[in-house]
Amino acid sequence: MIKVVIADDHELFRNGFKQIFQKEYIGELEFVGEASNGAELIDIIERHNPSIAITDIQMPVMNGIQACQIIKKKFPQTSVIAFSMFTDINTVMEMIRAGADGYMAKSTGKDEIIEAIRTVNQHNRYYCSTISSKIYGTPANSNQQQRRQKPINFGSQERKVIELVCQQLAIKEIAAEMQLAPRTVEHYREKILEKIGARNSVGIALYAVVNELINLNAIY
Questions:
Q1: Short-list 120, 127, 113, CA closest to 80
Q2: How far apart are CA 27 and CA 33, in angstroms?
Q3: pLDDT in single tens digits along all 220 residues of the chain
Q4: Euclidean distance between CA atoms 82 and 66, whole angstroms
Q5: Spacing of C-alpha 184 from chain mean position
Q6: Which among 129, 127, 151, 149 has a CA at the least distance from the CA of 139?
Q7: Is the CB of residue 105 less than 8 Å from the CB of residue 129?
Q8: CB-based contact 151:213 (threshold 8 Å)
Q9: What is the set of domains in the chain, with CATH numbers?
């Protein structure tokens, strides 16, 4: 039985979510509480020790990012899945930096949501198809997530390119910073994309955050 708690400031959404999953996945999921903000979510986790916390990001009192930071420090046994209408890369990276184990768009269907819960419950990361397609060009699944977490060796120049990509510098700006030709920087970028299986610089940035290749606190 996977113990789940859900946090969202809209009661109607919480009730609808619970009704769908309690009915269709009876015997697999147990909802042990619901919260309207991050502070309530932390209190429920302290009392019920759930396996999974599904949380919205924009909430009153304490938002999902702040709550996730506290949860991962105080209750590391509880995995956190962000469930938000925001799918921009900055928000995704902020939530991952806070320690989130998964990220789901609110447009995600129930089949993918249950797949995310199962995957994260097995201590793997999961990003919904909306996020994954932006970054990797393919839908997310547990096998892909496990492959992405395998260590990849990068040369010193590749690591520098990754760092500067995460600072949102353009190719010409990176070339100037590294005193290289833009074509050389583009070559490094293409090799990095090939190694991690991403399709754009957003993918590089997310990979770097997830695999702790950079310190976002030193960049943003």
A1: 120
A2: 17
A3: 999 999 999 999 999 999 999 889 989 999 999 999 999 999 999 999 999 999 999 999 999 999 999 999 999 999 999 999 998 877 888 898 899 999 999 999 999 999 999 999 999 889 898 887 766 665 555 444 444 456 789 999 999 999 999 888 999 999 999 999 999 999 999 999 999 888 888 788 888 877 778 765 555 5
A4: 12
A5: 31
A6: 129
A7: no
A8: no
A9: 2-147 (3.40.50.2300), 156-218 (1.10.10.10)
Task: Check residue 1 and report its DSSP letter.
Answer: -
Q: In the sheet where 2-7 sits, what is the strand order?
A: 29-35, 2-7, 52-55, 79-84, 102-105, 126-127
> What pTM value is reported for the model?
0.77
DSSP-based three-state secondary structure for 187: helix
Q: Which two tokens stand for residue 1?
A: 């039985």
| Coil/strand/helix, residue 198 | coil
**Chain Cα centroid distance, residue 21:** 22
3-class state of residue 31 by DSSP? strand
Calpha distance 49→45 (Å, rounded): 5
- Number of Cβ within 10 Å of residue 90's Cβ equals 11
d(CA 32, CA 3): 6
Tell me the CA distances in angstroms from 101 to 21, 98, 176, 210, one per residue in order. Answer: 20, 9, 36, 9
Number of helices (H) and strands (E), helices first, in the chain? Answer: 11, 6
Please work out, in degrees rounded to the nearest 5, the angle formed at the alpha carbon of residue 71 by the alpha carbons of 69 and 73: 70
CA 14 to the chain's CA centroid: 21
d(CA 153, CA 170): 23
